[in-house]
Write a structure and sequence with these properties.
Order of helices and strands of chain A: HHEHEHEEEHEHEEHHEHEHHHEEEHHEEH
Mean pLDDT of chain B: 86
Number of helices of chain B: 2
Radius of gyration of chain A: 20 Å
Order of helices and strands of chain B: HH
Helix content of chain B: 40-55%
Number of strands of chain A: 15
Strand content of chain B: under 5%
Largest sheet of chain B: none
Distance between the termini of chain B: 35 Å
Low-confidence stretches of chain B: none
Distance between the termini of chain A: 11 Å
Strand order of the largest sheet of chain A: 1-3-2-6-8-7-14-15-11-9-10
Largest sheet of chain A: 11 strands, mixed
Shape of chain B: extended
Structural class of chain A: alpha/beta
Shape of chain A: globular
Strand content of chain A: 15-25%
Structural class of chain B: mainly alpha
Largest interface: A-B, 50 and 37 residues
Oligomer: heterodimer
Low-confidence stretches of chain A: none
Radius of gyration of chain B: 17 Å
Helix content of chain A: 40-55%
Chain lengths: 458, 62
């Protein structure tokens, strides 16, 4: 395998620009590695090999003419299969949409293409993005490159697994209850759920419109910033925010409640060590309180189920047999839920958001775990969390869904490995619109703690 | 609850088997119970729901 397949974009891009490496050479190597690993990892629904090579040749020619578009130019990039790419099926992980071929790109995909990214293909996800294992009943399970018996997390499972495995440098994901940050944490890569609507949802098939966020996954925080410069159509904004290097003046809030209740001891130890590390750099750490956190999932559940059921209604009536049992049960529950429950949950959500904003008024960011446990085995329905048995889905998204309810930006950055060699994630949450500070905090940890760009054994 | 759900599902045109109705009943009971506990003691009318969170016409759809 070529060593540069595991480089961050920030290291690859100058070599592409200087023509020391060719986009065609890099894309071809990424495709060869994909062919080698795909039988074990199952990251793709549709691999776009010919289109990727054509885009790479075009990038190579442009760079040779001195028309370098920026750090994504000629870089192999993955797309979760719920974003429209013109001329390529968008399955959303379901056979119901197997014949749906959009005729235009999602807005986010168009921005990536304009930045010169080489689209490698459409990547496998949890069925309809409504779950966190990426164990898809129609396309099979995506597997974790750190241990192929483990889940990669989800719903953006194929996207995170391919970045970790060195077959793409970054990817486009969506996050409704943690679907960017969960697979980022479990696969040992970085992920950002930006502020609600910072990246447009146009051409992204929805799970639940008031909770859906579009954002990047990548190997490093700087690479997230490179992606955000393109995705938010704000050239230089996010990379510029990191140009000053690590920040040691951050005020870091640590919630007293909820985030520490049901936690694997190794996760607790790693995240507390990360917070102590930031404190040791000079950051000020203080406790904050958010009593409604305890009800995060109770508020999220009626909203996500109702909105998803509304979107799925025609197929719930006509094609229920084409759904996996787990997702169908949640959608049917959403279809039968009283409208009053949805509305009351939205009212509670506003109070939740106000409480969250108040907690963040005296600090720059919150630092908490991303996922309570390392990656569970593929097919597991329950997981042991520090001596308590929990249902896998309820456990895995409990620490990420609060930021979806609030609509606030949240990143996950690797913070070490478990004793079994599985990645663990530190989550940084910030104020609405303050995505740059979230990236700065994650970057500060990543750059000073020495654990960046983890590499799995595959 | 299951009998009510059977009528409600039929009215909506949702084909659901007995096990699916039973599952839905369990899920609804849990969801509504959790929501009631979250709302207990709170004035739900103290804050307007977030009107910015509306479906977007330009969202993806097949």
């Amino acid at each position: 395998m070529k060593e540069w397949l595991h480089w961050p974009i920030a290291e690859l891009a100058p070599r592409l620009r200087a023509r020391e490496l060719s986009p065609v050479e890099v894309t071809r190597a990424a495709l060869e590695r994909t062919a080698d690993l795909e039988p074990r990892l199952n990251c793709y629904v549709t691999l776009m090999a010919e289109a990727a090579l054509a885009a790479a040749r075009s990038a190579e020619a442009e760079i040779a003419r001195g028309q370098w578009r920026g750090p994504l130019h000629g870089v192999p990039f993955g797309i979760k299969d719920l974003f429209d790419v013109a001329g390529v099926p968008t399955t959303f992980g379901s056979p119901i949409l197997k014949d749906y071929v959009p005729n235009r790109d999602a807005a986010s995909v168009a921005r990536l293409k304009a930045a010169g990214a080489v689209i490698m293909g459409k990547q496998l996800l949890h069925e309809w993005a409504f779950g966190i294992t990426s164990n898809n009943p129609h396309f099979g399970p995506v597997r974790n490159p750190w241990n192929t018996d483990r889940i990669p997390g989800g719903s953006s499972g194929g996207t995170a697994a391919s970045i970790a495995a060195g077959t793409t440098y970054a990817g486009l994901g969506s996050d409704t209850g943690g679907s960017i940050r969960i697979p980022a944490a479990l696969c040992g890569v970085a992920g950002l759920k930006p502020t609600y609507d910072l990246v447009p949802r146009t051409g992204a098939l929805p799970l639940a419109w008031s909770l859906d966020h579009v954002g990047p996954l990548a190997r490093t925080v700087m690479d997230l910033a490179i992606c955000m410069d393109a995705l938010a159509a704000a050239p230089g904004t996010y990379t510029g925010a990191l140009a000053g290097g690590p920040r040691t003046d951050l005020r870091i809030g640590v919630p007293r409640e909820y985030f520490w209740d049901h936690l694997d001891p190794e996760v607790r130890s790693a995240v507390l060590a990360a917070i102590r590390h930031l404190e040791g750099l000079g950051c000020r750490v203080q406790e904050v309180s958010m009593p409604l956190l305890a009800h995060s999932q109770a508020i999220l559940s009626p909203i996500i189920s109702s909105e998803a059921a509304a979107w799925h209604e025609p197929w719930l009536k006509a094609r229920p047999q084409d759904y996996g049992g787990e997702v169908l049960a949640r959608l049917q529950m959403g279809a039968l839920l009283p409208a009053t429950a949805y509305l009351q949950a939205q009212r509670l959500r506003q109070q939740f958001r106000d409480e969250f904003a108040a907690a963040l008024s005296g600090v720059d960011v919150l630092a908490v775990p991303t996922v309570p446990v390392p990656a569970p085995p593929v097919g597991a329905t329950a997981v042991d969390v520090g001596g308590t048995t929990m249902e896998v889905r309820a456990c895995i998204n409990r620490l990420t869904c609060p930021a979806n309810l609030a609509g606030f930006p949240a990143a996950s950055v690797p913070c070490g490995l478990s004793g079994d060699g599985l990645p663990l994630g530190l989550q940084i949450i910030g104020r609405a619109g303050d995505d740059a500070t979230v990236l700065q905090a994650a970057y500060t940890y990543e750059q000073t703690a020495g654990g960046r760009n983890l590499r799995p054994p595959v | 609850m299951k009998e009510s759900l059977r009528l409600w599902a039929a009215a909506l045109g949702l084909p659901m088997s007995e096990p699916q109705l039973e599952q839905a009943a369990r899920n609804l009971e849990t969801t509504l119970g959790n929501l009631a506990r979250a709302a207990a003691g709170r004035d739900l009318w103290a804050a307007e729901p977030p009107l910015a969170y509306q479906p977007q016409a330009e969202e993806g759809r097949p």
